[in-house]
Amino acid sequence: MTTQNIIEISGVEKRFGTFTAVRDLNLTLKEGEFFSLLGPSGCGKTTALRMIAGFQDHDAGSIRIGGQDMEHIPANKRPTNMVFQSYAIFPHLNVGDNVAFGLRKLKLGKAETEERVAEALEMVELGGLQSRKATELSGGQRQRVALARALVMRPKVLLLDEPLSALDKNLREAMQFEMRRLQQKLGITFVMVTHDQYEAMTMSDRIGVMFKGQLKQVDKPEVLYARPCSQEVAAFIGGMNFLDAAVTGEVNGKLHADLQGFGPLSIDVNPNVARRGPQLLAGIRPEQLEISAQKPDGYDGYLQGTVTNAAFYGENVHYHVTTDGLSQPIAVSVPNYFHTVDHKQGDPVWLGVQNASVIDLGAREA
Amino acid sequence: MAGFLRTEAGKGLALSAPASLYVGLLVAAPLGILVAYSFWTQTYVEIDKTLTWANYLEAATDPLVRHLLLRSILIAGAVTAATVALAYPIAYFIAFRTHKKTLWLLLITIPFWSSYLLRVFSWKLILGFNGVMNSALISLGIITEPLTFLLYNEFAVVLTLAHAWAPFAILPIYVSLQKIDRSLLEAATDLGLTKLERFIRVTLPLTVPGIIAASLIIFIPTVGDYVTPSLVGGSQGKMVANLIQVQFGPANNWPLGATLSLVAMASVGFVAILFVILATALGRRIR
């Protein structure tokens, strides 16, 4: 894989009146990368995507695509194509004409146009459906047509605005893998906007997490999950137990801290942490905790508590455990091996945690 | 009886009865009477009710009927073309370029707050020999003699009708423009089209139903209009409805009037269907 930069965004800002939708956006994307902008609705991720596409001007900073400054290049001249959230399939045209829409402008000649349309439809597994009416398509098919219509233009960057949000769960999961496969096969840079953390994690090479117009962290999915930069990011991606800890010392990149409920532990310093405070905020993923009726062996920290809630989720079982002095119950998730819920509400239990499972999150956010 | 009303069919009939009665009495019955009259003959003061094709034969052979019918269709066609062409940019402006849509739509309906007759008379005042237009042009020194081609001809009829029917064209076109999903326009831009290309390949084909609706709403009633041609049309602006009016009035030949009405109706229907087929086919050709 080449390591050439395809998109370079620096210091980009977008204001709507007095509201700043995107502030100081800096992002460099490599050629052939699948990148997701993840964040809650209204965080500015769609605005950022629309600025790359050229549907929105930026008020400050610069956007470069393929080394070229996009400042005065209108949307119809940019080397990007977009898959819209609503798919924007032209209702007056059939599938073939929808896919050929952008090619007709290029005046490639009938044979080549038809060949490229057929190839694009084949790619999204809609081969031979050229004459199907746009109004007769299912949601999944519309999504594929939108994908084919954009890819047939052979863009340098494909932009996807919440491409799967209109599909039902099973179809969405199937399309996640299919889009990933397509992206890897074509080697085109995909930039996807989504509010669905699982979608972002399963499909992307890297994810950028956005809150209130600011890009907070850009990392690989596994790094984002294991070393989130703040409480905000940690809370948005996966489940997380937040516990206060009093730092007693720091040796060789390890924080010695007294963790609320669990006692003294040695926590790896998280290099991503942006903000430090007098007190440490630590995080533990629910699936990294051991739960047992007897005290389990070989853990670095223990907590003795009572089950307040037990729920069977299918692939795993969720427990809530509480003890004196905890403001929030601790969530524990155990893989479902034997289709049983081992601990009932009110049962006394032991929780065990390893040093490595405790995540340093810096300071608690107000 | 009460039992029948409780069945599905009975309920349906009962529910549709008021509408059926209304349409039956006010549309079907008069039309039936018209058809009946067209096969009868006027004999001075009486109506001879022996069925005959004579009226149709007369309508088909009389060059005046053919001439007036053709002129009516041409004038109505010109009115339709002019009105739709002028209405489209206005509808486009309201749909895409302004946030004060309600205000603009209200402004467009303002002419309707006055009587149609008054509006036609205003055009007489504007276009007349000593009218607003001529006095203005003379006082500006652009012309020395009043222009006589402004009033009492086809031009005056087309102008007056185009003005009167403008809102009927603006509204359906506005609705069809308003319905267009804005992301379709962005998608067209994204796929490389300029604004003009986008208009021709996306906006225009998607508004074909609105254009057809506007055209029919204007074309069908204007073919049969007789107030406007009799007030501003002069002798060369007369239309088929004026001839029909003469048959029911001064000429006192109701059967021939009925025949002419039906012939006019059939011609309008034929032209309208032809237009719908053509416009739809043209819209489909744009890809």
Can you tell me about this structure?
The complex is a heterodimer of chains A (366) and B (287). Chain A is of the alpha+beta class. Chain A is 23% helix and 35% strand. Chain A has helices at 45-53, 95-106, 110-123, 139-151, 169-186, 197-203, 221-226, 231-236, and strands at 5-16, 19-30, 34-38, 60-65, 68-69, 80-83, 157-161, 189-194, 206-211, 214-219, 241-251, 254-259, 263-268, 280-284, 290-292, 301-312, 316-322, 330-335, 348-353, 358-360. In chain A, a hairpin with a 2-residue loop joins strand 4 and strand 5. In chain A, helix 2 crosses helix 3 (110-123), helix 2 packs parallel to helix 4 (139-151) and helix 3 packs across helix 4 (139-151). The longest helix of chain A has 18 residues, at 169-186. Chain A is elongated. Chain B is mainly alpha-helical. A two-stranded antiparallel ribbon of chain B has the order 1-2. In chain B, strand 1 and strand 2 (46-48) form a beta hairpin. In chain B, helix 2 packs across helix 14 (254-285). Chain A binds chain B through residues 53, 55, 74-77, 80-82, 84-86, 88, 90-93, 97, 100-102, 104-106, 149-150, 153, and chain B through 181, 183-184, 186-194, 197, 201-202, 205-206, 283-284, 286-287.
